[in-house]
């Protein structure tokens, strides 16, 4: 079924992006000559991309049941779809969210880093790096609509966004809990957290592998806003509408100035980081810890 429709945005609004917000607030919807905006839904098996009703905004929904673990396939699809959005200059902002009830993302797919061979670990880690670099340095405004549990790699993904809205449900938690699995968050996970909540809070959170319930996550600055579960996505969209009022070039240069030094830390030594990961994760003791953790997760039901 063709889902394509074309909306026309006046060129003046594209040249002055902040004018779009004002214009739409005034109820201006007249299709006049300008640039075509595709409203076609696209995406792939595990990542759905839908243009939102506000011009220039898309919602990217992860659907990798049961827990949106970051498998190699999901990571690859995420990066491809993000690139598509970035190449389509009509998009300025994206909401990242989940289709798995009660779970934003369970983080890295443990079956990708447990019981595989070194070549697979290297390929997988490169994909994790790529996901982080692309999201962290994206010119788009990214808002995470965290509608469920958000541990480890899921938390990292949300920390790459410019703003985080989380469901105010005490059943959900967010944090970098790697030490609880007997593994170590790499330096760029750590740097992303430090840039968000500061050094002291990060040191404590990382050493203890803390998973913060929403109220504590808000207090520590890991998320920016808590809302009832059914308002997470709509709030994320309204936050984006506010950010859209800022001229893109100024916001993008500012974002880059804030983030590039951190990203450069990894860009300068990607291969070394891959080698470190492969040798760390291949250790017998680490593999045993991961197997035990996975077994516990699987036993939970039994
Ligand atoms: C010196 C250093 C140098 C280099 C670096 C080296 C090291 C490594 C760094 C690696 C960084 C790692 C980052 C990570 O993200 S690791 C993953 C951490 N994730 C977690 O701890 C979350 C685990 N999951 C949960 O807590 C729960 O599943 C969750 C998300 C709260 C949902 O709970 P629930 O709804 O009850 O669902 P179940 O637990 O029953 O799970 C359903 C099903 O999914 C399987 N599963 C869960 N999580 C994962 C996962 N992350 N990967 C793969 N599979 C997962 C679970 O086993 C169940 O499977 P089943 O077969 O039983 O149906």
From TrEMBL:
Q: Does the keyword Nucleotide-binding apply?
A: no
Any single GO CC term annotated in Swiss-Prot or TrEMBL for this entry: mitochondrial matrix
The protein's location, in the record's own words, is: Mitochondrion matrix
| Domain of life, per lineage | Eukaryota
Supply the EC number(s): 5.3.3.8
Sorted UniProt keywords: Acetylation, Fatty acid metabolism, Isomerase, Lipid metabolism, Mitochondrion, Transit peptide
One Gene Ontology molecular-function label: delta(3)-delta(2)-enoyl-CoA isomerase activity
Per the record, the pathway is: Lipid metabolism; fatty acid beta-oxidation
Q: Quickly give the catalysed reaction.
A: (3Z)-dodecenoyl-CoA = (2E)-dodecenoyl-CoA; a (3E)-enoyl-CoA = a 4-saturated (2E)-enoyl-CoA; (3Z)-hexenoyl-CoA = (2E)-hexenoyl-CoA; (3Z)-decenoyl-CoA = (2E)-decenoyl-CoA
Listed GO biological process terms: fatty acid beta-oxidation
Extract the SUPFAM superfamilies matched here: ClpP/crotonase
Q: How does it assemble?
A: Homotrimer.
Describe the task this protein carries out. Answer: Key enzyme of fatty acid beta-oxidation. Able to isomerize both 3-cis (3Z) and 3-trans (3E) double bonds into the 2-trans (2E) form in a range of enoyl-CoA species, with a preference for (3Z)-enoyl-CoAs over (3E)-enoyl-CoAs. The catalytic efficiency of this enzyme is not affected by the fatty acyl chain length.
The entry's family comment says:
Belongs to the enoyl-CoA hydratase/isomerase family.
Q: What is this protein called?
A: Enoyl-CoA delta isomerase 1, mitochondrial
- Organism equals Hipposideros armiger (Great Himalayan leaf-nosed bat)
């Amino acid at each position: 079924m063709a889902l394509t429709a074309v909306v026309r945005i006046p060129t003046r609004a594209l040249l002055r992006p902040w004018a779009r917000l004002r214009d739409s607030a005034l109820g201006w919807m007249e299709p006049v000559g300008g640039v075509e905006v595709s409203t076609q839904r696209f995406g792939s098996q595990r990542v759905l991309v839908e243009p939102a009703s506000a011009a220039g905004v898309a919602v990217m929904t992860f659907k990798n049941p049961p827990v949106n673990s970051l498998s190699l396939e999901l990571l690859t699809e995420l990066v491809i779809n993000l690139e598509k959005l970035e190449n389509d200059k009509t998009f300025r902002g994206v909401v990242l969210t989940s289709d798995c009830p009660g779970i934003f993302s369970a983080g890295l797919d443990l079956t990708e880093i447990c019981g595989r061979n070194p070549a697979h670990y290297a390929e997988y880690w490169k994909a994790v790096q790529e996901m982080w670099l692309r999201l962290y340095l994206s010119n788009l405004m990214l808002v995470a609509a965290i509608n469920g549990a958000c541990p480890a790699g899921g938390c990292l993904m949300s920390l790459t966004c410019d703003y985080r809205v989380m469901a105010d449900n005490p059943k959900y938690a967010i944090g970098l809990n790697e030490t609880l699995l007997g593994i170590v968050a790499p330096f760029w996970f750590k740097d992303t957290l430090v840039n968000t909540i500061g050094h002291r809070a990060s040191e404590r959170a990382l050493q203890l592998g803390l998973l913060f319930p929403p109220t504590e996550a808000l207090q520590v600055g890991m998320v920016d806003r808590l809302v009832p579960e059914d308002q997470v996505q709509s709030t994320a969209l309204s936050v984006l509408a506010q950010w859209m009022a800022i001229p893109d070039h100024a916001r993008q240069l500012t974002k880059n100035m804030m983030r590039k030094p951190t990203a450069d830390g990894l860009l300068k030594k990607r291969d070394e980081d891959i080698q470190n990961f492969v040798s760390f994760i291949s250790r017998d003791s680490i593999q045993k810890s991961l197997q035990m953790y996975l077994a516990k997760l699987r036993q939970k039901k039994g």
